[in-house]
Structure formats: C-alpha cells, structure tokens
Amino acid sequence: NRILSRTSIINDRYAANRQLAVEMNDKFQKSLKYFQFIQDCDNLKEWLDMKTLQAQDATYRDTANIHTKYLHHQKFQAEINSNKERLLSLKQNA
What we know:
94 residues, rod-shaped
C-alpha cells in the first residue's frame, strides 16, 4: 500500500513537471519568435536608413553623368522590389 502511494506521488510529480516543461517550452518558443521579429525589424530599418542616406547624398543632385545615375536608380528600384517581400513578411508577422 505504501509503495502504491509513493508511486502515485512520483507519477503526479512527473506529470506536473512534464506540464511545466511544456508551458516553459511554449514561452521560450514565443520569446524566440518575438526576438527574431525584432531582429528582422532592426535589419530592415538599417537597410532603409542606409538607402535614405544614399538618396539624400548631394552627388545625386549633380546633373553630370546621367546614365550612371539612371543605372544606380534601376539598381535601387530592384533592391526595393527585392526587399518588398521582407517588409510584407514583417507586416504579416506583426
């Protein structure tokens, strides 16, 4: 009888610990997802800041060498289009 009582106590503790482990794992997974989202936001913000500085650069106001500027503009448009998915993904995850 004592052995059965002891076994029951151990099984109850095991079940409680198992449930606690599942809950903690869920919290860690949510935390990981949150911090990955924050990191993605920071990366996109850095990219936007860098592109904003490039767009405001005084050399873009110079009218000499228009063809090179046009090529830079096309490259910039391609970068924006390729990063559009990142922005939409971030918006969806928010």
